Amino acid sequence: MLDFFTIFSKGGLVLWCFQGVSDSCTGPVNALIRSVLLQERGGNNSFTHEALTLKYKLDNQFELVFVVGFQKILTLTYVDKLIDDVHRLFRDKYRTEIQQRSALSLLNGTFDFQNDFLRLLREAEESSKIRAPTTMKKFEDSEKAKKPVRSMIETRGEKPKEKAKNSKK
Prior knowledge:
This is Signal recognition particle receptor subunit alpha. The chain is α+β, with helices and mostly antiparallel strands. It has a single domain (2-131), classed as Beta-Lactamase (2-Layer Sandwich), CATH 3.30.450. Helices cover 42% and strands 20% of the residues. It has a five-stranded antiparallel beta sheet with strand order 2-1-5-4-3. A hairpin with a 2-residue loop joins β3 and β4. The longest helix is centred in the C-terminal third of the chain and has 17 residues, at 114-130.
């Protein structure tokens, strides 16, 4: 379950925001801006603030930042796919408004992205549920089961074949 998802310009204008569980996303996003974006430490695209994990994606071409926040105790496997899909769709849908690059045009622009985002979120959650859970291999399916037992037994005084070969060289 996502706490929030926000899209803002590098100039600081919030273009669109989704509030999930969290009441306010301003504290964690401001911490992300101060600690990572302003200091240009954007190596791993993940940031932890108190009980939240924030994943972000920078779009240098259009000077946009996409940030998703969720509880750090959760392991959400679909977050990376979601942020890529939202980035692609938002950029393609609002390309002309963003390319004008004036703050006034961004303020006057209406970014009605709620329905598109909810659709992408639902698809990402469904795709993560569809994946079959991984099961452990049975011993019979492993490589060790295919080897004869005699080849794995070492007797006293007898050197294993690999060590014997290395000593001759």
